[in-house]
Amino acid sequence: MQVFSIPKSIKENSRFTFCPGCDHGVAIRLVAETLDKLNLRENTIAVASSGCSVFLYNFLDVDCVESPHGRACAVATGIKRVNKAVGKDKFVFTYQGDGDFASIGLGESLHSALRGENITAICINNTNYGMTGGQMGPTSTMGQVTTTSPMGRNREYHGFPIKTAEHIALCDGTVFSARVALYDYKNIINAKNVIEKAFMAQSKNKGFSFVEILSSCPTNWKLTPKQAHDKIENELIKTYPLGIFKDTTNE
Q1: Secondary structure letter of residue 146 according to DSSP
Q2: CA–CA distance, 21 with 100 (Å, rounded to integer)
Q3: Domain spans of the chain, in order of start
Q4: What are the two backbone dihedrals, phi and then psi, of residue 136, each rounded to the nearest 5 degrees?
Q5: How many CB atoms lie within 10 A of CB 154?
């Protein structure tokens, strides 16, 4: 049996704040392991958005800033630029939900990518506003029932969901954009490798890097944890295919 050690970047004795079956805990651990592997922890500033992602500061032993809703990429840009101006090139990443990154914060997110800001954004896509009651979000899939779309999302009234990783990949300032999932061991390992590539892009001063993580939301999907992961594997990736949509880090 393999025994996993706790990454140094993870705070010990932290109270777990996420719902049973939620993938935020796995995602945060992958971020922590990657920070330690690349020896980035002591030089890192994380920016957490409003929503479930705001609890990041409870779990990572790094400097962390809580941004207003939707403004994480703008806050990260300011942190990165100010520190660089005084000769302190910090490693800066955001940890956001899909509603934060791709709806209320889409302007900040998109233009950070267009400017090629040398930061990394991680977006947890669980296809709804998880913390505030399970409302329809920008990534809610066609036909998805939420508290604000009780008849299911439809084309005529709600339009189509945004495919964030593909849109960010179209920005000239983006050097890395990918989508991963966490529904089984193989995909968890792949997600960790992809996060490492995104972090390395920033470390090499390449430009904007982005990782979208498909995540379960058993509470608002009204499913068991296993059913939620099955939903990602069998349904969600049909709308949101996994893969790397842009990688110019070696150019």
Answers
A1: B
A2: 21
A3: 24-247
A4: -65, 135
A5: 11
At 95, which amino acid appears?
Y
Between CA 213 and CA 217 the distance in angstroms is: 12
Which parts of the chain have pLDDT scores under 50? Answer: 1-3
CA distance 41 to 27: 16
- Please identify which residue in the block is written with the tokens 């964030």: 164
Q: CA 17, CA 174: separation in Å to the nearest integer?
A: 32
Q: Token pair of 148, please?
A: 């604000």
Give the CATH architecture of domain 24-247.
3-Layer(aba) Sandwich (3.40)
Side by side, the strands of the sheet bearing 243-247 are: 63-66, 44-48, 91-97, 120-125, 208-214, 174-181, 243-247
User: Tell me, what's the pLDDT at 4?
Assistant: 57
pLDDT at residue number 195:
98
Q: Which two tokens stand for residue 55?
A: 């609890």
Give the number of other Cβ atoms within 10 Å of residue 74's Cβ. Answer: 20
Burial status of residue 185 (CB atoms within 10 A of its CB: 0-12, 13-18, 19 or more): exposed
* Residues in CB range of 112: below 8 A, 6 or more apart: 73, 74, 76, 77, 119, 121, 173, 208
